[in-house]
Task: structure prediction
Amino acid sequence: LGTDPDSRDESFFDVSLQASGTPGEDLLVIEFDRALYRTGVAISVQVSSDLEEWDEIARSEHSQPFAGEALVQETSLGPESSHIRVEDVLTETATGGRRFARLAFWQIAP
Result:
């Protein structure tokens, strides 16, 4: 993501509930910036309603575009980075009002 792994910096990461205008139809949204020159890394956006079982809704490997069932918007921040916005696939009503998101990272072969 282009940050120092030994330093706590929450400014690059934002999770929010986006209002759709229809009660009960709000979506969880996760936004973050990432460096495009990073290879050998996979990023998975995962969601859960109970913090026990996690479902992957979007994934990117080697800084390629995200794929998966979630709506993903990627905005260029220049030649070396982009801003990622991922919308959850389930609404507030469908999840009983409880929804959690996380990013998972792991090293992959180049």
The CA atoms of residues 49 and 99 lie 5 Å apart. Strands lie at 13-18, 27-35, 41-48, 55-61, 71-76, 81-91, 100-107.
